[in-house]
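Quick one: examine the sequence and fold tokens given here and explain what the tokens say about the fold. Here goes:
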Amino acid sequence: LSTRAGSSLEPEEHSMEPPAVPEEEEPLTVASGPVGHQLFGYVGIEAVLDQMKIKTMKTGFEFNIMVVGQSGLGKSTMVNTLFKSKVSRKASQPGQEERIPKTVQLQSITHVIEEKGVKMKLTVTDTPGFGDQINNENCWDPIIKYINEQYERYLREEILITRKRKIPDTRVHGCVYFVPPTGHWLRPLDLEFMRRLSKIVNVVPVIAKADTLTLEERAEFKQRIQEDLKTHAISVYPQEDFDQDLDDRALNNRIREKIPFAVVGADQEHQVNGKRVLGRKTKWGIIEVENPAHCEFPLLQDLLIRSHLQDLKDITHNVHYESYRVRRLNESNRPALGPNGLP
């Protein structure tokens, strides 16, 4: 009887017994020690970031934003200023066919924006007719219906037995609500809209055309809005309940102190001290849109794009869409009632 080199027949006699673990060796377990264990050599873990970046640059990503407010508050101009391109239609003079609609009509425009090799499929949804009528009762219903329709569309794709590798995402990730610069209090329309919409989408309120207010009026108006939101328990983005850790809470607390942002939009450049800047020209000078000393547009741009864009998408998926998904699946699993009210 012969065996291969290095093999032995002896262990076969004790094959039913569990193998002994040498005292000097420890079995592999998940250690609960401090994060960032010291390695003996280079592993290359940080290369995952490069892989994610390359994949994102190849496939691109989607971002869907909705702007809501009365006509004449500069919604289209603000969107064009945010993304430095003509991504939103703006009528210079309302013609015969461009009058204020009798009901809220939603218009979505999709563009692909590319910067430094990264592609973003941007969808902007405008809401002409919102708040423009004498009777604005239930004018938020078409907006709520549209947002829920996008959740429903995503849910139907997700529950298919054979589903797409990448489900098209048309869900609204952020809703920028334009508050008229009255300088007083929030109107009942503003409060009711934000109360209803903040439960299903990330709402970011801004004070439109803030250059019509003095700095003192702006500060007082902002404080009154913050008091109104707190009194009516309206949770706008970034919501305190969704802060991940202490660092996030510290950053978001600084943002929450500034909300609503007092913004000015402009899509025309002017010469200021030898530089071309975006701004609005007045008799007293030029209001520079991207100058923090003039308005808070840079804070809005940082929030929506540079610091919280992915967080907006995560909360939309993990919180708002998840709530909708659970509700819809519970409805579909509920047994149908007979004529006697029994299953």
User: Anything to note?
Assistant: Residues 51-88+101-127+138-331 form a domain with the Rossmann fold fold (CATH 3.40.50.300). Strands lie at 61-68, 107-115, 118-126, 174-179, 203-207, 261-262, 269-272, 275-282, 285-288.
